[in-house]
Amino acid sequence: MLTIVPSIDLIDGKVVRLKQGDYGQQINYDVDPADVARSFADAGATWMHVVDLDGAKAGRPMQTELIARVAKASGLRVEVGGGIRSTADVQQLLDHGITRVVVGTRAMEAWDWFRDLVQTPAMKEKIVLALDAKAGQVATRGWTHTTGKKAVDVAREVSDWPLGAILYTDVAKDGMLTGPNFDETEALARASKVPVIASGGVGSIEHVQRLTKIPVWGAIIGRSLYEGKVDLREAVEVSRAR
Questions:
Q1: What's the rounded Cα separation, in Å, for the pair 141 and 190?
Q2: pLDDT tens for residues 74-94?
Q3: Cα(136)–Cα(148) distance, rounded to whole angstroms?
Q4: Cβ(49)–Cβ(79) under 8 Å?
Q5: Which of 148, 114, 113 is nearest to 128 (CA)?
Q6: How far, in Å, CA of 8 to CA of 52, rounded?
């Protein structure tokens, strides 16, 4: 079964969406984050993805208290990313009831630290590695830097690690509603035993149907939900039919 993971991106406590990760292309939605989270649960979702965009920009979590309240209101299992740079950042989110913590930039820039974090018994399956790619190469720091490493090679390297998941985003697709990079996502999923979450670009129920045909664990859906292009309840039903 494909797990549909609806997402909330937060700036200054407000629900927003960025096109291709660009803070200059911000779309604001006049909705309450807790109400949105509850609506996800009502539609049949079991997981939710939350991004602290203020944290991503600042390089440290900035909206943890709000995110914890939203998570509690939803009753969903929640994974959170944005600005997580230390073990203390990870632990703080877990202590606030978050199920999994997403680490991207810091993982790629301090690989030994990240490996040790993931291998810590108490962190088993609680860490998600975010691989954000530009033309197949991993990008960091809000997608402004490329590492020169291929996402599929990194996925292969961590294949036997006790990660919760790999979150794969094609930067060019994110927030554009034109569909994920299906080929790259499938290649990455086949390269690793770690569950893969497809992120970025889901803009129609057809995209969801296509994702059910490749070996990914989950799919994140954001902007298309807020703009009525995808009905979450329908997406959940389609995903369960795999």
A1: 27
A2: 999 999 999 999 999 999 999
A3: 9
A4: yes
A5: 114
A6: 9
